[in-house]
Amino acid sequence: MRPLIVIRRVPKIDFMRWHHFGFAFSALLSVLTVVLFLTQGLNYGIDFVGGTLIEARTQGPADLAAMRAKLDSLKLGEASLQQFGAANEVLIRLPQQPGGDAAQMQAVQKARDALGPGVEIRRTEVVGPSVGSELIRAGVLATVLALGAIMIYVWFRFEWQFGVGATVATLHDVITTVGLFAIFQLEFNLTTLAAILTIAGYSINDTVVIYDRVRESMRKHRTMPFRDLINLALNETLSRTILTVSTVALAVLALLIFGGEVLRGFSIAMLWGIVIGTYSSLFIAAPILYYVQPNRRAIAKEAAAEPRAERAAR
Amino acid sequence: MLYFANWKVLLICAVCLAGVLFSVPNLFTQAQLSHLPEFVPHKQVALGLDLRGGSYLLLEVDFAKAQQEHLNTVIDSVRNALRDAKIGYTGLEVQGDAITFTIRDTARIDDARQALAKIDPELTVQIAPDGAGTLKLNDAAMQQRRRQAVDQSIEIIRRRIDETGTKEPTIQREGSDRILVQLPGVDNPEHVKALLGRTAKLTFQLVDQSASVEDARRGRMPAGDAILPAVSEGRGQSSGASSYLVKKRVMVGGDTLVDAQATFQNNEPVVSFRFDGVGARRFGDATRENVGKPFAIVLDDKVISAPVIREPITGGSGIISGSFTVQSASDLALLLRAGALPAPITILEERSVGPDLGADSIHAGTVASIVGVALVIVFMVLFYGLFGVFADIALFFNLCLMLAALSVLGGTLTLPGIAGIALTMGMAVDANVLIYERIKEELRGGRSMLSSLDAGFTRAFGTILDSHVTTLVAGVLLYWLGSGPIKGFAVTLSIGVLTSLFSAILVTRLLIVTWVRQLKPKEIPL
To answer: Which CATH number belongs to the domain containing residue A75 in this structure?
Structure first.
């Protein structure tokens, strides 16, 4: 049984020619993210800022105006109502109530009573102010730790120059994913954070594949100009870069289409992260090596020891 | 590479078989499972509250409040100790987590220190040269009290929740002073929240008739008295007064109750209670000495009612009547039976999911996973033919192993957890892609078939390991960071990364080796 689709030839794309555009584009995206983050901010979900979230289902299409009027009469602050999937499903958000943790808990019951028995309450989430700020702290900490751990690992497995490239690329993926949420004001909640951490762990994969090949080529082609060598490594690994990303993208696409509203934010973040992660491996992580120049002689020296170690490992 | 030791083959097959065996129970309903024979595994993956419906509450024990109360009881001993040693002092009071005071005569600071040190070894005494002193719980005692308060709270919360008839609640400590409560099947936890929000500290105290509430408010508060408000809930005011002047000294505490039941008296809902031996004797003595005077029944610093003692109550039982509804009477009885919380509890976080939404989520998650896996399977066959089929077989075992690991280890499957499964299915075949691409490359480079296969597996291994480790790092950090559903994602992601390392490398290799040995192919169909 033979494959139906075969990629036979190794492509000859001059990636290095485009790397200035890549750097410029990524720098622009990153700066835009930072600016948006500082001016507009993120649309934080209640996980982080506290408040109340109610997912309700009405009999027949939801009358948002009427529901809003009912909630506004409670004086619980500005309620945000939003259609959520089907026409009869509504997502209601109430802001953080003054008066600490106890006040949040009362708000949800008032809202339940105000909406009346005709509305089915499918989900409620109430997060007090103390938990929200803890989660922000823990989230930032976890992301920083993840980046740090990955950098150390890559440094440990390769030379430090590779570590720099991998970290910049991963940081870029994380920042631009946050940027996506800032530009479109998508809700940024705990699931989004989970997606971002997963992206940090996953987007490094194709970078590692490429770096592996760069290192291998450095041993094999000792005299080849480094620029050509990077191009060669990128082209040789291009098919596997695209194929590995495709399989994960397929799985995420299925989640995006069929996984329901709750997973939507997660799937969008993952999909974007996978695409941008591939782009950054090709146009950021690899070209950076050209500027930080790993020590070719040291790597070539290792080459003599390596095959023996490989044999021993078997 | 062609050589696979027999024990290795056996081990790989055994692991795969175990994976299938332990994941199979998830295909059946509970009812069907009960018909299966004993030796078949019965453990299923536990569903998280977001899938089965239920409520998740994160509580915090307000330890500072409990500590303050404790210090309030210590303050009397401090007063006595200083008085007995004839040491003058001013400003003795509880401030935050310490008792503060000032010794008048700075020459007697050492005496004061000695006198105070005898009160309680748990207390640390500090007196500055100017006479300003503090008395604090030492760190060890504080930690022990904190632990005790949380342990006790957990026990009492469990009793209260059990009394409401909630099935299979999970109540566990979270961090140092938090408690996580999970209530499957409860989608509106208002009643539980109302029950947990009350400390339920019941005391019987005498009403001080020597002064009126108004006098006391105007500043003529008799020593050792306090003004307590009347309970305002229930069916309006029936007993008249809106607040009472009550002696602080407790006649009898609710901790001596052994039983409480909601019943009716003159068609009014009331709560009847019974004391244990000690409580009964104390209550009997107190009522004997105070016949004709009113006493207050105080719950959480509010007066439920203040009946007049007509005769000594020596039977060890009594009735609390107030303006109860049937519900509030039965709630109070429940709270009294379960006991008082050692410290007030705050609800920090609440997440509830209705059973319908849970079922919808299971459906959506399952459909998405099946479609995702199907797409990956087709993709692999399209690009790798027979080898794609091998990868797909390995993928099947990977899925089984993941479910088996979740079932056996008692992991909880949440909606993000399902997303984690779908995601790792996509990532699992990445390893196969890396191996196969390498094999193709080696073939192109002119190597022989067998040596290409060999090189493909060995050379790709390092890369595969690297990528798995980085994803695992993210998974572990997520587990540490996340709560509830996110933890579920971290669990499936991490398990999936580990099982895929086994399936994509060992299982695929075994399949290919068997294929080479049995069919002796002339070339590799890549």
So the answer is: 3.30.70
Identity of the amino acid at A277: G
- Give dist(CA B392, CA B372) in Å, integer: 13
Q: Under DSSP, is residue A204 helix (H, G, I), strand (E, B) or coil? A: helix
* CB contact residues (below 8 A), chain A span 156-195, against chain B: 157, 190-191, 193-194
Tell me how long chain A is: 314
B485 contacts A208? CB cut-off 8 A: no
Domains of chain B, with CATH numbers? 6-53+354-519 (1.20.1640.10), 63-142 (3.30.1240.20), 197-350 (3.30.1360.200)
Residue A269 lies in a domain: yes
The SS3 of residue A34 is helix
For chains A and B, count residue pairs whose Cβ atoms are closer than 8 Å.
243
Per DSSP, the three-state class of A43 is strand
- In tens, the pLDDT along B214-248 reads 888 887 778 778 888 887 654 444 455 788 888 88
Contact assignment for A201 to B369 by CB distance below 8 Å: no
Q: Where are the alpha helices (DSSP H) in B482-507?
A: 484-501
So what's the pLDDT on residue B406? 92
pLDDT digits (tens, 9 = 90+) for B377-434: 999 999 999 999 999 999 999 999 999 999 998 888 989 999 999 999 999 999 999 9
Structural domain boundaries enclosing A214? 15-42+132-304
Surface of A (91-120) touching B: CB under 8 A: 100-102, 105, 108-109, 112, 120
**Distance, CA of A36 to CA of B45 (rounded, Å):** 43
Contact A130 B379 (CB under 8 A): no
- Return the amino acid letter for A305: A
Q: Measured between CB atoms, does A5 come within 8 Å of chain B?
A: yes
Burial class (CB in 10 A: 0-12, 13-18, 19+), A223: exposed
Q: What is the model's pTM? A: 0.82
Contact B352 A125 (CB under 8 A): yes
Q: Are residues A121 and A148 in the same domain?
A: no
Say if residues B343 and B329 touch (Cβ distance below 8 Å): no
The candidate with the shortest Cα–Cα distance to A175, out of A25, A26, A20, is A26
Report mean pLDDT in 10-residue bins for chain A, 314 residues: 79 89 94 93 87 88 86 85 85 85 80 84 87 83 86 85 90 94 90 88 88 89 89 92 94 93 91 94 93 81 56 44
- Has the ipTM of the complex gone over 0.85? yes
CB < 8 Å from B in window 59-88 of A: none
Report the CATH number that the domain containing residue A161 is assigned in CATH: 1.20.1640.10
